[in-house]
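Rotation project, supervised by the postdoc (A.L.). Task for the rotation student: set up a whole-complex structure prediction and record inputs and outputs verbatim in this book. Inputs entered:
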Amino acid sequence: MSQRFSHRLLLTLLFLTPLGLSAQEAKDPISESGFVKEFGTMWTFDAPPLAYWKAAYDFTPDQAWLDHVRLSAVRIPGCSASVVSDQGLVMTNHHCARSCITAVSTDEVNYQATGFVAARQEDEPRCAGMTADQLQSMEDVTAKVRQAVTARGTEERVAQRDAAIQQIQDECAAATGLICQVVTFYQGGMYSLYRYKRFQDLRLVMAPEEEISFFGGDPDNFTYPRYDLDVTFLRIYDNGRPLLAEHFLRWNAQGAKEGDAVFVVGNPGSTGRMLTLAQMEYLRDVQYPNQLAQIAALIRAYRSLAEQSPAAARQYENNIFSLENAQKAIRGYWSGLTNPEIMARKQAFEGEFRRRVNGQPDLRSRYARAWDAIAAAQRQFAAGDAESRYQSFGGSTLLGLAGNLALLPAQAALPDDRRLPAFRGEGIDRVRAQLLRDRPFDTEQEVALLAAQLGLLQENLPATDPVVRAALQGQAPDAAARRLVEGTRVNTLAMRKELLDGGSAAVTASDDPFIVLARVIAPLATRHGMRQAQLNTTISANAELMGQAIFAAYGTALPPDATFTLRISDGVVKGFPMNGTIAPYRTSFYGLFGRNAEFDDQPPFHLPDRWKMALGRLDLTTPVDFVSTADIIGGNSGSPLVNRQGEVVGVAFDGNIEMLPNRFIFTDEVSRTVSVHTAAITEALKKVYGAERIAAELERAAIR
Amino acid sequence: MSQRFSHRLLLTLLFLTPLGLSAQEAKDPISESGFVKEFGTMWTFDAPPLAYWKAAYDFTPDQAWLDHVRLSAVRIPGCSASVVSDQGLVMTNHHCARSCITAVSTDEVNYQATGFVAARQEDEPRCAGMTADQLQSMEDVTAKVRQAVTARGTEERVAQRDAAIQQIQDECAAATGLICQVVTFYQGGMYSLYRYKRFQDLRLVMAPEEEISFFGGDPDNFTYPRYDLDVTFLRIYDNGRPLLAEHFLRWNAQGAKEGDAVFVVGNPGSTGRMLTLAQMEYLRDVQYPNQLAQIAALIRAYRSLAEQSPAAARQYENNIFSLENAQKAIRGYWSGLTNPEIMARKQAFEGEFRRRVNGQPDLRSRYARAWDAIAAAQRQFAAGDAESRYQSFGGSTLLGLAGNLALLPAQAALPDDRRLPAFRGEGIDRVRAQLLRDRPFDTEQEVALLAAQLGLLQENLPATDPVVRAALQGQAPDAAARRLVEGTRVNTLAMRKELLDGGSAAVTASDDPFIVLARVIAPLATRHGMRQAQLNTTISANAELMGQAIFAAYGTALPPDATFTLRISDGVVKGFPMNGTIAPYRTSFYGLFGRNAEFDDQPPFHLPDRWKMALGRLDLTTPVDFVSTADIIGGNSGSPLVNRQGEVVGVAFDGNIEMLPNRFIFTDEVSRTVSVHTAAITEALKKVYGAERIAAELERAAIR
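Outputs recorded:
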């Protein structure tokens, strides 16, 4: 089974860039409230945007409402979730509970395939390793952290800061017994101490079949209209008994309808909305086009492998799907960055912000140089891109092993802080362990992937390049790859041990074709790696200044970039223009059975038998999934959608493909959060899964 | 009810441009057969591409197959159709029979709303004015036409050619009693005499409700997935009795399935695939952007009118829909021309073709200058675009009337061939009749539309422009428009009569604000009009050379541009990548009821009661619409889709939005023909309309 790319945190982009108010927006009551649309709506609970909510929705929640939804939300590994009954029932996405569903499966029954319903409470099996964190409180500790940083040198300052953060966390944990985490907002503009109560006994209550939770599979992933029942119920146990939850979201089985305001309470993982224009241009012009070229080459390689037989087709299907999903995602991000309108907005904001900083002498002296410093570093990255990308050990497992064998003796001889990042600290032990792990290699796959890499090498570097010469030796990429792979012994553990034990002398003496090539690449790759590490340090340091500047200029009026901590995002349930027509605000079971029929019941549009048998009982007009303008990203999977009354009306599980550019600049014309509708869940529990016990528990919770 | 833009012939583009074979294509057996994909597959019946069909589908129809499908097809006004029973039953689109359905409606019953089913043959009402033309034969008359053209001057040559064509047509009609038309292919590269048998007694047999035939309305127009039962049955009567048809398509109630080869037999109206690169660049850079700006201004004007009251909203709804559809269409065409990949292909083909012409001395001397002559004329068009577009009487009915009043005396005094094109021949009488037609004017609408036009004028011409000065007199467009409209009497028949009768003197003496403005515009507009007429003559003459050149270089291996004459296009039933996922090859009744539910049963997604009542009887998995890679354009509406066995498997009614760029360069990666599936028609006839008589007639036809 391939993984769902939308929910992984692909990039950790922690740099900041601020946006200003344009004259036109300033006339608007929503903008007057300090709201800047392009930053999105991932609000922290200690800075709820009350004036903006009042202007946008005529909605002014009191502190009790905010506390209630915060304490009803829980964070689970990699995902979000919510408590939905006084018996500790927890709702999240099916794809967030996958490891649990797999773990509780037996040799006889695979609950991913069959679904799972615990008939009685005592039949709810434990999910090993699953935890749920409930955010108890937040405290601004910026001053404490800052006070501890007194040194002048960058590295010492970083060490002081990290020590101060560790101390705050340790003291908090000792005093409260809670999980304590200092969260860095605005890349150092603000530090907050987040205290969580952690529940460690979660059990599986109900999970639908993967076929219905991920209906439409990889093709429909990231898209809308969707028909997925991507939901799973867990239960928090406390001292071996269901948690008597003080805070839980009441179940609204009617769910959301078009035009309703909704609030998503969850943990968005990572956004890059505060990147500078220079950083976005680098992604647009250098990084993403090159990544797309590499992915395309890999897809071609796997396709050619898959074409060799039906067995090969099955074997490589998941690699191809996974790469295609990566391609979909990066193309989506890239489409935002290549949209002149979006980039013009970004440019306008950056101009306004720079004027603001330059207009105040104290800000100017501290921050004004940061943009140019980042831009200069990005230019250096761009200038050396082809060399550092291809004078490397990437793209082939065997070449990677040969590279580590060649690098290790020299790296081990250096002091830690002069090594390549991958060889620092415990890294060097990981490298050794990887070299000593015995594993089989598929020759054809190795040849195909190396040939793809050599093809890119040939395209991107001149024929006179030393790596091009050493790798190709005048041959075409295919032939060169075959020569290397078939001529090497790096694929044997014996050979790798021999070289490891023999150290530098053994590497120098080796005539293994991969080691010979690695000796050519090693000094070049080392130089590139050290240079990149230095540029990254420059960018990080200046991005931290940038974050401080934005916080100084705008405060919490702009929500910080996502940090996989609890946020509340707002939006409206709303269809959108799509491909010349209108995508409806919600789908239906009719639509589900339609898409199933239209693909002739074939995977990934196949429906489980239980659904076919339930057909006559279902109200086919029931909403299945629905869309809203709320602002989410990977990590938000499983977040509840809450209405004004604090009731749950849905569970978020994906964004539409039009949402991908939101990673950098938020827009809501066509980007949408996709959620499972509570009406679908209620209908399915009762009429498909015979899970009356759970439906009744939700209904009791609704009227409490 | 708004009209369906996709089926009107928006543009008559009769210029030619040829495409060459790239080296890569030449390796492909399909390309070796002479097929050049970018020209599409609108084949004439006298040059069926047998080698290409053999290579593409392993299909080699014999002459009997070709004759059979040709003689089973009929052309009806503006559309295509086919005979589908031995009793002269004719199938076409509902939207092609609209005038008939409206005409046979009564004061009590509107069959557009209710649908119509003739219970017995004697209940089939006559469709006044409806004809059906059956193509009997084609004859190449190029030599005859060419022989008649002996003069040297362009205008004399045109007159000789037209006279020769008229003579051929007249002689044919006298000899055969058939409808005879000489069709100009390749813009004069080839002339063919088409002989049709015309049937003049067509009657209405069965029409569904407009709500189901145009389900999804304007939003879904041009798009896919679709759920339209866009079909109507007529019957040809001969001597007052149903035609005993010798040729008819057998009904295949299973219809098409994914991967099937299908052939569309119908009358595509107009394509511009043989335009030169310079002509396409003019459309891309000048004409379409300006048309889009004008449409956007009109939409804004109608929206502001519509906002004034619910009654106004209803009144202007159709204007807005119609403009939005025009916008959708032009944006679609434009998207092809602004696609660098598509344009690069075009450029490559033009280069190859020019080399081919330059490589043969006889071709070179006759044709090599034509490209540059066209490009020069297009440059002149582009240079004068803003002036000729806005120093004009366009955009306002009242300004148009004032313009004709101001122009008429001078135009009438000139010899015919020195007049503006609109005033030549019978044109001048039409202008007079239009001025003398009594009609009401809506002041607010006139103000809004004129203000939109004046806004564009102000944006596109300098403030010192004489028309800008005379029209705006320093006011904003809104105020100027109100001053003009409220101050004029051109809206009264009395005033227009007075000015017509008074001639030049009355026009000169008038102080009516519109007439004063028209006196400023008239000499400028006259100059632009004469200049444009001259440029058009240059382009036409050179485009004719271009057509001769392509025919000389490639022959009938490239299908000619569409001419609203019978063609056979081929394709495969096939889904396509859409918005990140896959559009299925066909839709279903499940999907229909889904889209109905998802828009809460609201128009244009409302379903007729008859459909709701039939729900329990319908097999909801039945295919409704399906897509194929066949090549169609406006005029193909109602064309049958025929399988290898010559059976009918569907009726074409639209293209998807991705098909719009095909007007200029054919591609089939995502562009698709959308057709009603015969299974849906059979199911609906039996289970929704109780039209067992017709279903049985089709079934009898299937087994004959």
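Student's summary: Chain A has a mean pLDDT of 92.
Supervisor addendum: The longest helix of chain A spans residues 513-554.
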